[in-house]
Amino acid sequence: MAKIIDGKQIAAQVKAQLKTEVEQLKEKGVVPALAVILAGDNPASQIYVKNKIKSCEEVGIKSLSFTFDSSVTEQQLIETIEALNDDKTVDGILVQLPLPKGLSEEKVLKHISDLKDVDGFSPANVGALTLGRDCFKACTPSGCMKLIHSTGVDIKGKNAVVIGRSNIVGKPMALMLLAEDATVTVCHSKTENLAEITKKADILVAAVGRDRMVKADMVKQGAIVIDVGMNRTSEGLFGDVDFESVKEVASYITPVPGGVGPMTIAMLMENTVKSAKNRLNK
Ligand code: GUN
Prior knowledge:
282 residues, alpha/beta, six-stranded parallel β-sheet, globular, binds guanine
């Protein structure tokens, strides 16, 4: 029976440490600040943004909230971003995704300064991650790395399999595991013999968005299983991993909810504090 990795508790520890760092920054005259831009009325996005703002309050980060209805134009969003780029008191800028239909995420996001891109989505930050340089790293895969580290298992040389190749999770996840010397395989919707590959994983990360698709017979005995999925179904909220069966096979497993989810926001707070430290040291 697997040990359950408590993302809520680990996120609380990260935030408590950040709170101390924020107090120290404030003593030096820097108030870390995060600007959150929300466009449209996607209910999940509204909840995520509310939770991000609540976490800012917990940690002592100032939050600035910009909300637009779904009729907002790309130009209006770009003007908001550019004003925030120029505002020296703002450390991080986040545009909650997805944008309303008809708006190009690429066209809007590219205006966020690389120095304030606390989501780690910009080509410059993704490129720097690829090259192993200091940068803002995407929050969800960073949070997964912290959860893997919490097990105390050495990643070096282990077989790591990532299911999913999104720009936000799968690809940066693979790069972060590779940077820590794992042997990494990325699987996706066109992968043949998926179970054969996942069964070799010492570390298995599922980030596909398909309700409980990873079954016990796809998992190696003793694997660490990290579940990024958040699938809302008529039966309730489930991950990409069939928790009930997989927990009998894995050595460590994250629950949904209470696993990766709380870590994403904690890492956003960490990136914002990192940016504020950069401002202090400029
Ligand atoms: N939508 C889903 N995940 C994310 C995220 O990590 N950042 C932003 N900005 N939007 C998202």
